[in-house]
Each structure stands twice: as C-alpha cells, then as structure tokens.
Amino acid sequence: MSQTVYEQLREQIVSGALEPGEPLPEVSLAEGFGISRTPIREALRRLEQDGLVERAARGMRVRRRSPAEILEIYEVRILLEAAAAKAASQRCTPLELARLEQLHETMLKVSSDDPSAMASVNRRFHETIWAMSHNETLVDFLTRVDAHLVRYRGTTLTYRDRWETVLTEHAALIDAIKAGDAEAAEAVATEHMTGARTTRLLMYAESEDDLR
What we know:
The chain is mainly alpha-helical. Helices cover about 70% and strands about 5% of the residues. It has two domains: about 1-60, Winged helix-like DNA-binding domain superfamily/Winged helix DNA-binding domain (Arc Repressor Mutant, subunit A, Orthogonal Bundle), CATH 1.10.10.10; about 65-210, Four Helix Bundle (Hemerythrin (Met), subunit A). The protein has helices spanning about 1-15, 25-35, 35-50, 65-90, 95-110, 115-130, 135-145, 160-180, 180-210, and strands at about 25, 55, 60. The longest helix is centred in the C-terminal third of the chain and has 30 residues, at about 180-210.
C-alpha cells in the first residue's frame, strides 16, 4: 500500500499537480486515499529521501524550488558525471562503447520538435556512461542526484540551441572515452554538465519572470 501511495504522490509532485510548498498533512492524505496513516508516513519518508518533500513547521510539504538548490544539485552532479566519464574511459568494454555510439546515432535522428523523445534518449545516453564506469556506488549516487531535478519542469534540451551543443559535446565525450583519455573525458563531462546548469538557471529565471 505504501508503494502505491508513494508512486501516486511522486507522480503528482513531478507533474506539478502538487505545487512546491504545498502542505502534505498525513490525516488529510490518509482520508483521501482511504487508508491508515502508516503507509502515508512511509511514503512521505521515501519522498523525503528522494528530495521531493521536506519537513516544515507542521508536518511535510512539497519541497520548494530555488536557484540555490539548482546550484547545489549541479555542484554534486558535475563532479559525479565527470567521475563516471573518467571511469568509463578506463573500464568500458567494446560492446558498451558500441551501445553508446548507437545511442548517439539515435540522438542525431531525433526531432527537435519532440521534447519527450529528446529527454528519453539523452537519459539513456548518460545512464549508459554511468554503467560503463562499473562503479555501482557511483551509479547509485548519480541516480539519487538526478531524481532531485525531476521537480523542475521542462527539459534543458529544448532551450535555444542547447540540443545542438549537447550533440556536439556527446560526440566529443565518445571520442575521449574511445581513446581511453581519462582527463579529456572528465573535462568534456564537466563542461557538458556545467552548460546544463547554466541552462537550467536561465530557464528557472524566465519561468519566475512569467509568474510576475
């Protein structure tokens, strides 16, 4: 039961049906789901671990968004993505590299008018590099950090000429990994995610302006 509640609340938060800062009182949620407070409490605890909810003066609430949080998330993600790329250049197998190159070919064919497809193949590209690091702890950390970004609507890939930049940087990243150049792979990944951070901050600023 707590799994079902967790999944439904998570979807409502990610979709924006539950707004940032919205209270999540256990009693009201239990009544709404027609269940006891125990599975509600368990689901909220998991959502807190995901970084989707936070503790307030009175119970839990949907975690607020802010530029400071974006900076915090990317401060960690940049380091982790760079570490994954570096490790991938040293440990990947020929089959894994072939899969990465195939994903890049798929990305080149994706229409820039299809944000969902763009985001999906981009995620698979990055998750493939994570797996190529052959470091399960690193993959776990990256998965957890990435989950913090799902509350920010829209994909950075559709912002201005970001998609073209991403394709160019992905190609450079593949070349570095293929060459076994750990320093180059680390540098390209760092530049790539730094660009994503800048784009996310610009998108946040523009969305806030729209609300004024």
